[in-house]
Amino acid sequence: MWIPIQINENSAEPLYHQIEVQLRSLILSGQVEEGTLLPSIREFANDLKCSVITVRRVYQDLESEGLLRTKQGTGTFVAKVGSDERDRHRRTAVVEAMESAVDVGMQVQCTKEDLKAIFKEVLDAKYKG
Amino acid sequence: MWIPIQINENSAEPLYHQIEVQLRSLILSGQVEEGTLLPSIREFANDLKCSVITVRRVYQDLESEGLLRTKQGTGTFVAKVGSDERDRHRRTAVVEAMESAVDVGMQVQCTKEDLKAIFKEVLDAKYKG
DNA sequence: TATACTGTGTATAAAGATATATACAGTATA
DNA sequence: TATACTGTATATATCTTTATACACAGTATA
Question: Domain count of chain B?
Fold first, then answer.
């Protein structure tokens, strides 16, 4: 099972947190289905170029949120997620990210039109595929 | 001298880093002019509800970038910033923030139209004043 | 059905980064 | 020269990340 996680080396955000946010997002958005056996902590750590313990912390945190179930000797599985929780997540994750982007713009004295232009530019570049 | 810095308690981004990013932004965007005497580390720490040491680290880091000059017993001043460096900063700061917002959207399987709607909504809310 | 092997998660200890309180030293100015 | 303001240095606690060694579960096979 290959899990697409993007690590940003330059970010000040802790590694375990970057992984958590993205894995949570994958589960809550339904891209990784209920019952899926996730990669072992060793395999995942190797993929992400980080320590086994860091992956373990992520699995542990998400398990305590009820998003994962782990069984020693067997592996870590994706638990069932309510569809309402799923919908709520999708929207709030994006809204929050967008808000912080607009905040940065305002802080640097961008006009509404400046931001519209930059948004369109970025959007077209990312969705050109 | 009052410096508008927004601290996000819930963010995993280290405190000193949040302050650095925003103060750097204020200097490079020209909102805090060359020669300005910044608040003392104690006053600033009190405003931000953080430790003196955290503010000192921010001043120290920005001084080593050449953005500040500090003189013991007197205070910390904003240094001169080249206008080209100023222009470059404004744009890249916003573009990077916008890119990461769009990334979050893509990760949660938003369509281009979904993102446009959310962006417009957030933009209108923030610029309603 | 023993037994060994390979896979899984677990526990402990240590190093680095981050944040704090407290005591120290330089500078302005009444 | 007092005094009240500046920045500075030291020691401490917590968080983040890692390395290493260990214990448990599944599977092949003698």
Answer: 2
